[in-house]
Amino acid sequence: MSNSTREELLLRALKDLGDNELKEFKWYLQKSDVLERFPIIPKSRLDKADRPDTVDQMLQTYCENVLEVTKKVLRKLDRNDLVQILIDPNAEPEAGKSWND
Q1: Which of 14, 61, 74, 98 is the most exposed, fewest CB within 10 Å of its CB?
Q2: What is the CATH number of domain 3-87?
């Protein structure tokens, strides 16, 4: 998968998060117990980050693993609809719908 495609998928998923969900998403990126083997992103790099900036920080930190990390955090937020977008880019998010993958 090309970098621009990854970037676009990430941005699309983050755009579907409400402001409070985005805040919680960024909070999880700072929790080593959630990310397990992946590095955290320091709070100072995420504090004022908007959606595109958050995508850039994630790409810099996680490179090839960025989609795996994103799916892990989205599952914590109970946003399996957005996990499905990362698995199948042609899927449309459906509020309140859970996907099994």
Answers
A1: 98
A2: 1.10.533.10
